[in-house]
Write a structure and sequence with these properties.
Layout lengths: L7 H5 L1 H11 L7 H7 L2 H14 L8 E5 L5 E5 L2 H22 L4 E2 L7 H12 L7 E6 L3 H4 L2 H9 L5 H11 L10 H10 L1 H10 L4 E5 L2 E6 L2 H19 L8 E4 H4 L1 E3 L2 E3 L4 E3 L1 H13 L2 H11 L5 H10 L4
Parallel strand pairs: 3-5
Antiparallel strand pairs: 1-2, 4-6, 4-7, 5-6, 8-9, 9-10
Helix pairs in contact: 2-4, 2-5, 5-10, 8-9, 14-15
Amino acid sequence: MKRLGNIYQQIISVENLHLADAKASRGKSKQPGVIEHNKNRDANIVALHTMLRNKTFRTSPYTTFPVYEPKERLVFRLPYFPDRILHHAIMNILEPMFIACFTADTYSCIKGKGIHPAAESVRRALADEQNTLYCLKLDIKKYYPSVNHDILKELLRRKIKDADLLQLIDEIIDSADGLPIGNYLSQYFANFYLTYFDHWIKEEKQVRYYFRYADDIVILASNKPYLHGILADIKAYLNTHLKLTVKNNHQVFPVAKRGIDFLGYVFYHTHTRLRKTIKQNFARAVKKGNPKSLAAYWGWAKHANTNHLIKKLLTSNEKF
């Protein structure tokens, strides 16, 4: 794919900013920032266009708040106007470029490639039992905060040659340390930062069964020594090329004995279970009778072997 040039004007066009506004506000009409923006929507869009045309846009101050599920982390939030609209405007044009870079084994924050398509890919791989007897499971230490700005910018320059757009993206990247969790652009930058690593794994190391969801990685193979060798190569690559560190909790284990705890499921060669915490939360949602929560957990359950679990929940509300 050729490097993209002359696209800054497409991004900052009033038409694209209106489209970005429509996408960014979808399902959020009751949020205070959206309500405030809608009072002067057209004037705000013109003002954002003018800032971008004159190259005076600067990222607004962040607010932060902690979340504790599925793990404790600090989430960053930008104002709806102008920042979140701009991020959508950029992705309206750049998303095809990012999608074209990703391998088939990359999931998370990609249309049509969320948790359940990833889970289905793992199940298909496990049908080849002899070549999936063992699993290497790992993730990256403090991934979002550890993304190196200079490396990310260099990687983006392999795909983009529009100087005005690169200047804008650089300003957004440098607005916080690492990649701020919660930014719309951060989701794509996080995937893109590892995309050359993905290609290295698949094309140079020729790993057949490889799955990456954000920074959680699963590799399947027929024997443990091969996986230990791949782990050593991965550690060296990530440290040398991306200044990233593999967490010390990495594991190599037999699939039949433990199952693969990944994506909220536990995968075996013969069946798939819900992760224990998902199962417990499902039971609590049934007890509370919250329709929204129940719909989400039914979505999880229908992709696993849960007939016995569902029968118990519906007949006895047992605690798990």
